[in-house]
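Problem 12. The chain below contains 1297 residues. Write out its predicted structure in token notation.
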Amino acid sequence: MAGVLPFLRSIDFTKNDFNDSFPTAVEKMSSLTWLKASKTNLKHIPETVTKLNKLEDLILCRNEIDELPQQITEMAGLRSLNMRHNRLKVEGIPYLLFDLEELTTLDFSHNNLDSCPANIHHAKTLLVLNFANNRIREIAPSFFTQLTYLQFLDLSHNLIEYIPPQIRRLQQLKTLNISYNPLQHDLFRPISGLTQLETLNIAHTQRGMNNIPSEFDQLTNLVEIDLSFNKLTRIPEPIYRLEKLKRAKFNHNEISEMSTLTECWTELVSLNLTDNKLTEIPASICKLFNLKRLYLNGNSITFDGIPSAIGKLQNLEVFLAARNELTCIPDSLCKCYNLKQVDLSSNKLVTLPPSIWDLKNLVNLNTDDNEEFVMPERPPVDVKGSGLEFYNVDFSLYNQRRAAGLKPPPESKPQKVKDDERKKKRALLKRKASGIKSEDNKDGSKILKGLSEYKEDNDSVNVYLSSRNRLSAPDDSKVKEAKARKWTDALTKPALDYSEIFPEIVNGSVGQEEGIYMYIIDNFLPRLLDDVIGRFYESDCYIVLSTSHKESLQVLSHDIHFWIGSKAEIDKKACAAIHAVNLRNLLGCDNRTIREEQGDESDEFILYFDGEIDVLEGGSESGFFQVEETVYIKRLFKCHGQNNIQLEPVKCSMKSLDHRNVFLLDDGMTIIVWHGQHSKLTQQKKATLFAEKINKLERKNEAELIVITRFDNERDDEFFSKLEDFNENVEIPYRDCRPEDKEDNYSVPAPKLYEVHLGVGYLELPQVEITNSRPLVHEILRSQKVYLLDVYTDVFIWVGAHSDRLLRTAATRLGDELLKMLERPSTAIVYTDFEGVESALFRSFFTNWDNVLAVDFTRAADKVIAAPSAKVNSLVEGEEELQVDLTALFTRREAPFSAEECLEFREQWSEELEKLNVFVMEGSDKYVQLPPEEHGHFYTENCYIILCTYLVFISDFTDDLLEQYLAIKKREGAKAEAENPEEHLSEGEDGEEEEVTPVCKVYFWQGRDASKVCWPQFNLSSSKKKLYGTIGKQMPIEDERCYQQQEDLKLLSHFRGRFIIHKGKRPSNNSDDPSAEKPRLYQVRQNGNVLAQRCIEIGCSSLLLNSGFCYILKVPVQKDEDLSYILYVWVGSSSSEDLMNSAIELGKEGFDDVDTVSILYEGTNETDIFWDALGGRKQYDNNADFMNVIRLFRCSNERGYFSVSEKCSDFCQDDLQDEDVMILDSGQDVFVWVGEESSDIERKLALKSAQLYQQHVQDLTGESRKLSVVRRGKETLKFIKLFHGWGVFRARLKASS
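Solution.
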């Protein structure tokens, strides 16, 4: 490894911290000729540097060096010494430094020099000398005597009053800067003799009309002159005769007029006349056709003072005329179509010419501080999508239907007969008219007739096969049997069941709508990929299906390609070809399959993926050979920042955690995002999106992504157990921090990008300059190059696709050396990233390199638009449309289970259930078993443990259950069975039934109003350990947490419709129920199917009745000193028969503490007691038709883009997530429910999505729906009635709770 350093010829250490020590590895860089160590906090030049005998260029800018060592005079090969921005003094400069024979460049600017070094004239070979920004007062006459080769001299920003006339000896001088010096008036005549001068800066040197020499016109090679900050009343006439002048600065003078000689500056590009006394500019300026920048700020120019012919300046890009007297600008100025910046602020503008909108290249137009200004109306333009406010998303119904894969309505267009067909028809008519009836013609007509019949047969069969899932099959009489024309057609094909190979084709989810579908060959069979993103692996083979519409036949057309990776094994190649043909046969296509090989893909194939495909190294396992699995390094990252998330690698330890941040654990195929108690919402969302990006870019979407929120404390152990020093007793800091302690002061180390150069026998490692104006963007990277990215916490090696092999090898070694050379955290490692397949972590260090997040959804729209992002700019300017997924809005509503299916499920699950026990949690470690008569009764403020013992086939065990089962058997002494589980799991040879064994499933049911800490208390309680220890010795055990009204159907089926949820807390035996003397009203409702039936207590008011449901009213009646109850079962007139029978049965058998049960049918036998208990008879809803159409959609950005997904029909109030926006369709209304913590963009796009859904439903059914917006906590009664058992929203948990 160390062998690479002696070949290093140049290296850039800029922005590293060498305050404590300088890298000792520099001693091994014996071939170093160029060294840069700017901004490294150096206080002296290290001795190691002075021993580099071959060093030619030494750059040590912006350090704290106050003297140069004597050893520097021994560096005989030194050519350039740059000590800018240090603390050098004259006495700290060695006397012999200027005797170095090779020294050509010397930069001592921005130091503490109070005079010129006495022996500076010894440096005869100097070409560049810079003493700017010091405190030099005097220049000795000998200063210029021997510097005859000098080409650049900068003495600006000093205290010089006198310049010796010997300056005329610098005949090779091209640049002279003596600005900002208190020079005397008569010292400029010698300068006129410097005929080679190209740049002259004499700004702020007390120049006036009486001390500008007339010989100035002798500087015929002058290209740039700066006379700003002087006392000129006009531009001296000799300067007009400088015909090569390109840049002229006369700002901050007292110029009141300009000569017509301005037209002599034919090469002028930039003219600065800011802050003078001009009232007009001459018309001759319109002849400066090369002029690009014109600065006129701070004058007294009026509308008439701008020439009307200024439109001739077609190259003009910048026109600044702020702080003048303009009331308008000439219309001709708007014909300078290259204008990019116009500043007209602080004038007297009334308006601008309407043609101002014709300046398409205009980026900045400033009209501030013009009180009466009115901007002319912009001509109407076509706005893409829904405009800038909605991020250019196209919300048109037609295009969104197409994006969702729906077939657009066919357009009725007249069929055009092609020219060739017309010619054929004319020829046939001509022959028919000529009466030709030879035998040959008869035979020919028979052949034509046979061919047409054969074509008709094939067309009918193809139409049937390609649309078999959408159209009914044609009658047998219409489908004629075609005779075999070739011997191959008579062969019998093997009977293959394509439905098992391509089930997606059979069920209609693939190939029945326009789109691109991709299969990967996995273990000899094709597997459908979820995303079609144009990314292939070189060891894999793929099948690509393109489905489109034939314009002529209005039927689907299929093109099938199979792609062969360059390193794919023979089994994958063969299977790709075979299954491509199988797919063609299944679809009934008559075209050929197309073979695509890596690196030789057809243009048509590449266009499927927007003209670009990526090929990655690696691939899936071969059916014959085993591919070595990728080894992932477990790493823990601490997330910082909000606008741009930054990941800091930390040690995989409990000590690295704190509750102020979000942590991301990358453990290969498991990625965990853990939220600290005080972490911010934006950081939580972005960390989750970053984890999804890692999964998508690097793990082929196969990694398990786990998000542990601050409300899921019970899952913390799942995260902590993967850390090195997991200990339940370790206290994580900042759990109870104060608000002022939440600040995160983490600063990101500035990344340094090195470009690796390889020459004949040498290496170079220069840095790529990164500034605010030139940020780190991925466009900097070149395919022919290799780069090292040093981010302090890690070192990345980026390998270009077309880089040289030797360059890659050298970069790998340099990356290892760079890692060891500088001080870093112990977690630092070296990554290698290849072009096109860069890791998410590498991309995060570059500006606007993000394939997942095009826009930050957690920020307001105006902030996103203002962000300095090229990606966002292209969005808001209409060049690009934001990615959205609205497919769910166009899918059909999920069909409910029939009563027969529900009964079949219930019986099946009942057969599996062997035993059921229910416990109620009373206290942190107390559980009371309920008697059978209380089974099915739940209270919203309690938590319950439901133990279900099932009889399960061993072959249906999960891996965890199987492991527990084998451990139990081993403990019981069945060693043979434990050692050979395969024999035990297989069916007997005599066909005997497979063994079943009991399994205990523990359901933890949590009421809506129960404490959130119940689940952690249950997990940590000794009772649970005792319970699990007892049951676990007898049978495998698993647990599941379920919330109120979010139970699965299997659990609900065990109670056979008797699932009653009461408000409040379960009354204990030794206490009275405080609500016992109040009537209670329960609503019986089935959400989607019979199994999802619940009886939930609601508010006791007749307003909440609905004729489509059944209700149970429990009324207390005082008899003597005892309290008894009357139970009324109210049957709505529109309720279904199943619901009515279930409600009556529930009323009779579900409540054991009632004396009388009365069945009331709506509108027939209601009693006054019934209505009085409900607070009187009031107007209520008379139907529940919404149950047949109701749908709930979730609008979220958690996938990294805006998407809409549908909740199941058995939804409840708790499905309304505060971080998102929901859309609820009731059949009459479309509600947009807005969560408090939803982002501005989610709200905007959700509203547009709801409007789009309105259009879609009206287009399908002809029914219009009213759109309403409701906010969390302010829902209307109309909205609340759509939910079963609506309650008050719980306050969100505070960080300190």
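Discussion. The mean pLDDT is 82. Students who got a different answer should revisit the alignment rule from Section 12.3.
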